[in-house]
Structures are given as structure tokens and as C-alpha cells.
Specification:
2 copies of one chain form a homodimer.
Chain A: H1 2-16, H2 30-37, H3 43-51, E1 53-56, E2 60-64, E3 70-73, H4 75-85, H5 92-95, E4 97-98, E5 106-107, E6 113-121, H6 123-130, H7 135-153, E7 159-166, E8 171-180, E9 182-188, H8 191-194, H9 198-201, E10 213-219, E11 222-223, E12 231-232, E13 242-247, H10 258-286, H11 291-319, H12 321-339, H13 342-348, H14 351-374, H15 381-395, H16 412-419, H17 427-445, H18 450-456, H19 461-470, H20 477-493, H21 497-539, E14 552-557, E15 561-562, E16 568-569, E17 572-574, H22 575-581, H23 592-597, E18 606-611, E19 623-625, E20 630-638, E21 656-660, H24 661-671, H25 675-680
Parallel strand pairs in A: 12-20
Antiparallel strand pairs in A: 1-2, 1-6, 2-3, 3-10, 4-9, 5-9, 6-8, 7-8, 9-10, 10-11, 13-14, 13-19, 15-16, 17-18, 18-21, 19-20, 20-21
Chain lengths: 687, 687
């Protein structure tokens, strides 16, 4: 009898699978959650949760936590804004920021919050538009239809509409958002506590970070009213408790073909890592020139180090023999299912080889594509502004359907917010980045390449970079606005050095992008659609699409795991551990506020914790909540084992890392004495 | 008739194979050269050539070019010496160096030239010593026998003896060298012309480098007399001419198993490149701190950039699907031949799997091995000195056969020369390198690793590095000498900060090295021997061993090739092209000497050229000569396509790059007016 029971249990577990999946709200497996955890989210519950969450356009997630537009997210999601609001005299990254009154809330220079309003299936429209087309024709038809759908949907500047490709082309949905561009900073702790442990502790656990911040969305100069928001849990996350994460995972590659994964493993990831590693070395040493050099480059350095560590983890997943073999076997299985039937073989059989061929094309063009288009400028703001201006002057006069996608009518509010941002530009950093870029351009295309010759002439990369930065006036947003509104005539006659540099490159850059879109992207899209349909036919739709920086819901539970050294890692850390870990030296140096507050703090308060939710980059700032939709913490990281989650989920060790809700409150109360904020969170009584 | 002839020709060509091979002097395929080029080197010819060449212990090749110990090599092979002889006031890297009189020749601080005297086969001795042993026992027996053989051979301080493992263990030879440690700089051009085009032109062709230098070996304070040396060719290299290169290729991996190649592809190469890329970024920016920062770090920067580009090329060869598939097929073929016979299967069958298992072990221990042992200190001289002192004090009292190999009796002259070198130590650079090292240590082992905790305590990597450098007196060679001669007692009581740092790490470092030697290296050695024997039995010995930084001879011809863009690349460049390529900006800025000499120069003089000789890193400085053993140039590089030569040779595009002998003379005559040198080369009349 016992034995039978065990078998039965195994079968159920087999059906219930793992805590895997970044599920869309319109295909959430409530039955699966019920089977595993005894709770089935209702449609009502899902709607409420969906309406309580938000997306930060720059690449993060967030939640509404009061009826007055108060938004909770990570410190590292508002880090750029905090740096932009700082000056050499007042560095909010170092000293933190708290608006004790509504008047003290400060607008972020280029920050956009999106609240999802509606999802419409537009698969039929897209399929019809591209039917029978290939290559350039497929791409043009697809782009035109997307531009048309988005424009028709975005009826006002504060409505944002994105057509989203799900299941690598198996489904197209139109996501409609309310767009908030007036976003003001309410609270940001010192980076020393938000990112305590810095790069060495990044993606690690046990962890001691207070990575939480608050902003507020405004409408017509007043705090926006929202109907749905998340309340606070009384106890916060408990061991073994069922947890949900609602957020916007940026992208996963779990449905890529073996040819595409091989390309990632052998070319895309290592080559990106070579660039990041070099830039990291450059920034480390750049900061040695003085404290102001550190201040202006810290945000970039954080981003570079974070990407570096994340991609190292991804690469390691792909070079793992067993992991890769599983991917090969999965593909083989589907291909064999296709082959077993002549009709299926005719419909889908060529898809994998077509993608493999396109991947070969990509391999051959990858350096030019990266240098001239995808990573041109290596992050220089001035270069980015110049390119946006040059292209806007050429694209905006065209019919909406024929523009490069980022200049389509529906995208203009975003474009203009970025372009007119009053955020400071740092010439020394600009010079370093542009030197880096031009050096790489010459190194990787070779000094005899016609583009390189045209760009550099007889100049060295550093000399040209220095000249281009010092002779450009684009750091001034007014100048950018004049050039933008002046259109092609203004741009054409501009002698701005950065505009001139972009102009020299742009013909080649556009050409290689066009080739990429027609010969690689459109082939991958079209054949990806075919594979997705084959997968639906073989396995049904009881699966989730790759992440696409759109709203997803994942479930899991608070749960420790076994570390790399074989020892168990408990799910919680406590405030006490933070003080034990502090060394007094950066990045393990506590800010004065925490050191002073120590006697008042309840040292056993849970600080950070892990859960088995399936997340990835972009989920930063997501609320993590219980079955009553109450906040039990805020997601800020994954553990090191979760980095392979790009390609597949391993429930035994993949973990989401969150700040515990009790830890958040303890800090707000006893370290920051943030009464106004606590009251708004319904936690005023405890202060 | 014609058709028959063609078939016959193809068969011969089939036997004659390609211009592939870095052949040992005791197994040179004269017949093969005869078949391809109509000239069979005689034993006498080989002996003369062998005696005319030299090795630079630091990792280069060279040749004797006068009876008075004059040695020709590359500028980049004496670069370190040139920097060490420079001061902030007089930078010979920038202005070049020429000793117009014998008295002006200047001793290089730590430079060793080796002249091969004799080769003895010691395969039987080694095989006997290790028979029936495995793991630690195999390793200990092998090391003891090698130490014994080398000590017995090295009867004087100026005799150097190295046991060399050929064919990955198929053969062991004892190489006996005359050792010259008094080496003086005679001529070095400005780096701006020696390395014209810098990193962008490195490994490229067409090329315009004057990468040649001269040093002189001394004995008892006088120029050493040598019986054999190479004369100068009257015309220099001609298109299509048969050429030989005699030199010391550092290492190739053409006989590695697929498991080992996979490890190289997925772990060793990318991870080394991540380090190099970061260090490169660091050095680029370090140099921005001022001209003196540039001067002291230029040598390192050159090395880092050179390795980076070389390893990028190697990695690209291994991720090439077709190339890798060929390697897999080759191994499969040999394994099947082994399997086809039960005795063979019993003798050799397990070898590949054993190596694969050892490679898995290596993968698992690789980070600790690299950080604690192989790359500990990240190139800091002070760290290197401290470690050598600490270990010498422990190793030298042991019996010769039980020491770590670099402390064996026969290696002491080298150890002591390095240790007592008067070369300057640059504290700022030391600090940067040590910070880099300690940061990586913490990053890759994690801040909670016991070694990391022990090393750093509560300090940051930068704080500790700065303290360790400023509180160390090891920059002074006298201090090092005292500690060395003081032995364990002196070291034990030393409070030198760098000695203390090394001491904290050393137990763990030795432990991981021991584990590596016993569980990885000895397994690869033992099973490599088995595979080598299987290969001999299957294919005979008509093949060449992987390179081992010992003297090899390669043949080929002056020959252009087809570039990556499909266009033909002619085999020669001329002086005229140098002036056309110059931009006036570094690294395309010509030194004043060449600009001033331009009117006097014969602009059609050949400058650099390519040939199909099979070479690799370590061959730098090798003479390239014709069938009359006359110098037609000096090897200084391979083209970009040759970088995959680490794993296999592709005659269609792999090329050796040399400075043409006529170009060398033109410069010596008309740019440098180096009469004394020209006369010694027998070229005085032309001056």
C-alpha cells in the first residue's frame, strides 16, 4: 500500500513538474500551483496582481504599494537617476536620499514607468501580413504591421503599445500600457547598504543587501491615483511558504535551437565577455584618477561588473557537457517527431537547418554588426545622442510603416524623453568610452578597413575621441532639442563633431543592420515560428514562452539549497549577519546610518532570503508576495546557480534572492526614521 | 601520358605532404624536402645550422652572426632588457640603442642565451624509472630521474641540461646547452619602427616592422668565440625560394586528445582571455596617468596585447566546427585502429578515457590552481621574488631528487640570475598588479573562502596591495641575496610584507600544485606516452613532436597567400610602403631617424616578407635562411591565420613573417650608420 502511494505521488509530481516557468498572465497554470501547493490563483486574484505591478522602461520591475502612485523597486533600478541627481558636492549614491516631505521628491531625468492595461492577441494579424514572404519582404511586412498596430493602439502620448513576440514567433500579443514619464525619487538608501558586499557578493548567497527604493509616479504634476496596489504582509516570508513573483524578466533563451546555442556558447558570450572584461579593467583604473572619476563612472562600473558576472555564469551553463547534451536531446526528440510524419516534415522539417544557415551568416558578419551598429559608441552618451538625432532626421519624415522600429510613431515619447534628458554628461568618461570604442573598431576591423580609414584618417583613436567630445555641444539638451526640431536641414548643416563622427559611420552601420535583419533575424523569426508551432502541436500550449521583458508570474517557495561546497544554505539571513560581515573596507563597509542604528535594531530580523521562483534579469524590483497577494519582500537578484537559468531551470539550486519585508520595515523605521513613507505603506503604527 | 604523369605527381605530393612540421634535428625529413624542393639537407649542413643557432631563455630564438659572439634576435626579444636599462631621463625604447664601440655595450640585467651542444636519448631511463607506477608515485619517480639526469649532465654553472618530453611522452631527450648569462646589448632600434603598427598590425600582413636587434654573449668578461655562425645572403629572400627556419617554437597542442582540446576551447582559453582583456583595459588606463606610467608598463602591455591577440586566434581555430571535427575524426581513427586488436586495446585502449577523467579533475580545480599557484601574483615582480625566496629556503635543503623542479640543482644558475637581477622594480605598477591579483582572488574564490579570509582579513585588495608593496624591501637585490643566502632561518624571521603575504598563501598553493601534478599532470603524461606509442606503431616515426621550446627546423618557401577578403596578398612589402602607412600618430608614427633618412633610402628595398614555414611563439628571433645556410631574414611573427597553428597547420594560409635581410642592412647602413656592426656582419663595404 505504501509503495503504491509512493508511485502515485511520483506520477503527480511528474505532471506537476518543477517550480519552473515565467508564465504569462493569460496562460497561468493555476492547476499546477494547486497540485503542488494547494492554492489555485483565481482570475480575480491574477487581475488584481497584474494591476498592482509596474515595469521600469530602463529594464526593471516594480509594484504599486499605495493608492498615491508610490512605487517600490530596487536601489539598483533607480541607481542611474540617483547618480544623475547628484553633484560633486552632494553624492546621493554615497549619502542616500529621502524626501521627508512631498515637496522634496525629485524628478528623475529620464525615467519611465509602465503599467500594463491590456493584452490583445494579434497572432492572426501578423501571420496574415507575412504569409508567404521571406527575407527582406518578410521583415518589411512584419515591421509595417507592427508599426500599424502599435500606432493604432497608442492613441495618446501616455499610452504605450508594444507588439510582443512570444514563443519565438508562435504567438504575437499587443501589450498596452499606461506610460508615466514624470517619476520622482522618494527614497534611496546609501549604496553601501543597498549593494553591501559589492561585486564579490553579487549573485551570491548568504547575502546582506538592502536593495530597495521608492519612487512616485505623477500625472499632471500630482501624484497619480491607482486603484490596485499591494499591501504589506504582517510577518513577511516564512520558510516553506508559497511565494509568487510578478515582474518583467528581460529575456531567456530556453527555446533557442542547438545552432543558436552553439553560437551563443562559442561566439556571442565569450566575445561579449572579452569586451566587458577589458572595459572593467579600464574603469577600475579610471577610478584611480580621483574621487570625481569614481563618482561619474560608478554607475557604468556597476553595470559592467553585473553583466560580466551574469554572462560568465551563462557561459558556464553552456559549456557544461551534460547541460548541452540535454539541449541537443530535446531538439532531437522534436525533430524526430516532425520527421515521423511526411506532412509535418514538409511543414517544419527545414526550420532548424534554415536557422543554422542564418546563424552561420551571423557568425561571419558579427564583428561589423557589433562594432558599427549594435555596440557603436561603446556607451558614450554623446555618441548615442548624435546617432539618435541623425537617424531621427532621416526616419521621422518617412511613412510610419517604413521607419526603423525605434523611430516608429508609437515610440516617439520614449525617444524624446531620452533625447531631451537633463541628465549630466561627463566629458572625461565620454572620452574614455569613445577611445575604447574607436580602438576596438580599428583592432577588430583592422586599420586597412575602409570604414576605419574613413573614420580615423591619420588620427589615433584617443586623439579623435578627445576632439569629438570637446568639440561637441550635444551635452546641452537645448542644443539637442534644436537639432531634433530642425530636422534634416539642421542636422545636415550641423558641424558638431559628434554628429560628424556618426555621419561617417552611419551608411555602413545601416547597411549591416539591414543585412542582419533580412538574412539573419527574419530567417530566425520565420523559422522560429515554425518550430514554435511544431512544439505546440507536439506538446500543447501547457508551456511558457521565453522571457520578453513583459509581465510574467512565477511561483515557488521559500527554500534553502545545497551550496557548491555541498553544505546546506539556509533560506534566510538576519540583520546580525550584516554586522558580522562588515569589515570597514569597501565594499564591506557599512554606512554611518546603519552603524549608528545598530543598538536600536532587532538583530534577529530576517534580512534577505531565497525562494525557488524562476526569474531572470529584468525581474529586479519585482514584488514577491504570498497567496493573499501581500508583499513578503522585494526581489533583487538570483543566486550564482540561477545564471544558467537563461537556458534552463534547475529547481534544486536555482534561487531568487529578495530583501525580506521585515528587513525593509526595520530599516525604514530604525535607520532612516522614514515616517511619511511608513505611514503611506500602512506601517505608521510601528514607527 | 600527360594524365599518368599528373597522377604520379599527385601521389608524390601525397607522400610529400605539406610544408608542415617543426622537426627535431635528429629526425629531420631531408627526403621530404628533397621531394618537394629538390634539396636534401645533409647531416653536415644540419650540424652547422644547429651550431649557429641560439635560444634566449626568456622565450625567444636567435642566431650567431659573427665569430665574436654576436647574436641576432628580435627587438621584442630584448625589449625587456631595453626597458630595464632605461631611466625616466633616457628611454632607449623610445630613442633606440647602439653601441658604437665595444665599451658601450651594456649588460642586460637578467638575460640568458643558450647554445645547444648535444642531444641524448634518455627514453629508456625514464621509462624504466616510472615503469608500473601511477599518480604520485609516477610523478615522484619521473621528477627524481629527471633531476638526477640533469644534475649529472650539468657539470658546471655554464652548462645547462634539460630533459625534454617529446611526442607527449613518446620520447625523452636530454638537451645539453652552453649557458651564457653575461649578455650585452649592442643594437636596438626605436620601438616605433621595430613594432611599427603596434597592436593593430600585430599578426597581420602586409607588415612594416624593423623587428631586429643584436646582443653579444660574453665569457669571462670578453666576447665569446664561436666556431659556427650564419653568413649573410647577397640578395636576401626571393619569391618562391626554399627557406628554412631554425628556432625554438615554444609549444603546440597538435597531439592533444579531444578531451584536452575541449578543455582548452571551453575553459583554458576563454578564461585566460578574460584575465588578459581585463588587464589590458587596466594597463591602457594606467598609462593615462602620465608618461612615466607609460614607460614602466609598456613592456607588460606589449606582452598582454600580444598574448591576447594570439589566444583569440587560437580560440577561433578551436570553435571552428570543421577544424574541430577533423580533430575528432583523427582521434577516432587511431582509437579504432587500437580497438581492432585485442592486445593493442589492452595496452592503449584506456588512455583516452583516463586523460578525459584527469581533464575533468582539472576543470574542477582550475580556479584554485590558477589563482594560488600558476598565476599567483599576476606578474608582480616583488611577489615573484618573495615566492622564490620562500620556496628556495624550503626546497634547497632537500635532496635534489625531491625538490620542486625549478629548484633542482641543475636549475640554480637560472634561479639565481633571476633572483639577483638588478632590473628596476616599479612600485606603482607592482601595486596595480597586486591589486588586480587580490581582487581576482576574492572574486573567483569568493570572500568566504578560508584562504581569501586569511589573506585579506578585513583589508580591501587595494589597501593590502599598497601596504605589501610599500613595506617590502625586496626591490633591492642585496636584500634578496641576503635572504637567499640566509636560508630558512633568514626567511623564517623576515618581517618583509611581501614575504609574509607569500607565506600566508604558500601552504594552499603547494597543496593544489601537488594535487594537480599527481591527479592531472602525471595521468596526462603517463597516458600521453601510451597514445604516443600507439601512434608510432600505427604511423611510424615519420612525424614531428609537439613544440617544446627546443630547437626545431622547419622548411617552406617564400610565398604569398589569399587574404580573408579573398584578395591575393603578395609575399613582400617594401620600404616605400612604410612611409605610405605612416600617419604621424602612434602606433603609426615613424621615429625621427627614419623620417630623416628617407631621402637616402632605396624605397624599393624589400622590408618584410612571408613564407610557408611552420612556426609558433618562441620562434621569434629565429634566423630564416636559404639552402646555403645564408641569412635571408629574421622571423618575427606569424600572420593571423597562423594562430590556429597551435592545433594544426594549414599550408594554404599559415605564414611566417620575417624582416628581409636587405631591409635590415638598408636600415643599419642608411638610418643608423652602424658601421661597426655592419663590418662585423661582413657588410662593411656597402656602408
Amino acid at each position: 500500500m505504501t509503495r503504491w502511494f509512493a508511485v502515485l505521488f511520483l506520477l503527480v509530481a511528474g505532471i506537476a513538474r518543477a517550480d519552473e516557468g515565467m508564465w504569462t498572465f493569460n496562460n497561468f497554470p493555476s492547476d499546477l500551483v494547486k497540485a503542488r501547493y494547494g492554492f489555485a490563483p483565481s482570475q480575480e486574484w491574477l487581475t488584481k496582481v497584474r494591476r498592482s505591478t509596474a515595469r521600469i522602461a530602463g529594464g526593471c520591475s516594480a509594484s504599486f504599494v499605495s493608492p498615491n502612485g508610490l512605487v517600490m523597486t530596487n536601489h539598483h533600478c533607480v541607481r542611474e537617476c540617483v547618480q544623475q541627481l547628484s553633484t560633486p558636492q552632494t553624492d546621493f549614491i554615497v549619502k542616500g536620499f529621502y524626501a521627508a516631505t512631498a515637496q522634496q521628491e525629485r524628478q528623475c531625468p529620464a525615467f519611465e514607468v509602465n503599467k500594463l492595461v491590456d493584452i490583445t492577441d494579434v497572432t492572426a494579424e501578423l501571420t496574415k501580413a507575412t504569409q508567404g514572404k521571406e527575407g527582406a519582404a518578410f521583415r518589411d511586412a512584419q515591421r509595417a504591421e507592427i508599426a500599424r498596430l502599435e500606432k493604432a493602439c497608442a492613441t495618446a502620448a501616455d499610452i504605450r503599445c508594444d507588439v510582443v513576440t512570444l514563443y519565438r514567433g508562435g504567438m504575437y500579443n499587443l501589450y498596452k500600457y499606461q506610460r508615466f514619464q514624470d517619476v520622482r525619487l522618494v527614497f534611496a538608501p546609501e549604496e553601501a547598504i543597498a549593494f553591501f558586499g559589492g561585486d564579490p557578493d553579487n549573485f551570491e548567497f548568504p547575502r546582506y543587501d538592502y536593495d530597495v527604493s521608492f519612487v512616485r509616479v505623477y500625472q499632471d504634476g500630482k501624484p497619480a491615483k491607482v486603484d490596485d496596489y499591494l499591501r504589506w504582509s504582517a510577518r513577511g516570508a516564512q520558510d516553506g511558504e508559497l511565494t509568487f513573483v510578478a515582474g518583467n524578466p528581460g529575456g531567456t533563451s530556453r527555446l533557442l535551437t542547438v545552432a543558436q546555442l552553439t553560437y551563443q556558447r562559442d561566439y556571442a558570450l565569450p566575445e561579449r565577455l572579452f569586451q566587458l572584461a577589458q572595459m572593467r579593467g579600464m574603469l577600475d583604473e579610471f577610478q584611480q584618477r580621483g574621487p570625481e572619476f569614481t563618482r561619474i563612472s560608478n554607475n557604468l562600473k556597476f553595470g559592467v561588473e553585473n553583466s560580466y558576472k551574469a554572462l560568465v555564469g551563462r557561459r558556464e551553463a553552456l559549456v557544461d557537457r551534460d547541460f548541452f547534451a540535454k539541449k541537443v536531446a530535446e531538439e532531437q526528440k522534436l525533430r524526430e517527431w516532425v520527421k515521423a510524419d511526411a506532412t509535418r516534415q514538409q511543414r517544419f522539417g527545414q526550420a532548424w537547418d534554415n536557422i543554422a544557415k542564418a546563424t552561420d551568416t551571423l557568425r561571419e558578419m558579427r564583428l561589423r554588426l557589433r562594432l558599427l551598429e549594435q555596440s557603436a559608441g561603446a556607451g558614450s552618451d554623446l555618441f548615442g545622442y548624435a546617432r539618435a538625432l541623425v537617424r531621427a532626421s532621416e526616419e521621422l519624415p518617412k511613412p510610419n510603416e517604413q521607419r526603423l522600429e525605434e523611430y516608429a510613431e508609437a515610440r516617439k515619447p520614449e525617444l524624446e524623453q531620452q533625447l531631451f534628458s537633463p541628465a549630466p554628461v561627463y566629458p572625461k568618461l565620454e572620452e574614455a568610452l569613445l577611445t575604447f570604442y574607436l580602438t576596438k573598431l580599428r583592432e577588430q576591423l583592422g586599420p586597412d578597413d575602409p570604414v576605419v580609414k574613413k573614420v580615423l584618417g591619420k588620427q589615433s583613436p584617443r586623439a579623435l575621441a578627445s576632439k569629438a567630445v570637446s568639440n561637441s555641444r550635444l551635452a546641452n539638451p537645448q542644443v539637442r532639442r534644436q537639432l531634433y526640431t530642425g530636422g534634416a536641414a539642421a542636422l545636415g548643416s550641423s558641424k558638431d563633431s559628434m554628429v560628424e563622427l556618426v555621419r561617417v559611420l552611419d551608411e555602413e552601420a545601416r547597411a549591416i543592420r539591414k543585412r542582419y535583419e533580412e538574412e539573419v533575424e527574419s530567417v530566425a523569426d520565420k523559422n522560429g515560428e515554425l518550430i514554435a508551432r511544431a512544439r505546440f502541436e507536439a506538446y500543447g500550449t501547457s508551456t511558457y514562452p521565453d522571457a520578453t521583458f513583459t509581465l510574467r508570474l512565477s511561483f515557488g517557495q521559500v527554500k534553502g539549497y545545497q551550496g557548491g561546497d555541498g553544505k546546506p544554505v539556509p533560506p534566510f539571513t538576519q540583520v546580525a549577519g550584516l554586522f558580522e560581515r562588515a569589515t570597514g573596507e569597501d565594499p564591506f563597509r557599512l554606512p554611518p546610518s546603519w552603524l549608528q542604528a545598530k543598538p536600536r535594531l532587532e538583530l534577529q530580523t530576517p534580512f534577505d532570503f531565497v525562494s525557488s521562483n524562476d526569474i531572470i534579469g529584468g525581474n529586479s524590483g519585482s514584488p514577491i508576495f504570498n497567496k493573499d497577494a501581500e508583499v513578503v519582500g522585494i526581489v533583487f537578484d538570483g543566486n550564482i546557480q540561477s545564471l544558467g537559468g537563461e537556458y534552463g531551470f534547475d529547481e534544486s539550486v536555482n534561487r531568487t534572492v529578495s530583501v525580506h519585508s521585515q528587513g525593509i520595515l526595520e530599516g525604514l523605521r530604525k535607520v532612516y526614521n522614514a515616517r511619511r513613507l511608513l505611514e503611506e505603506l500602512g506601517q505608521g503604527g510601528g514607527g
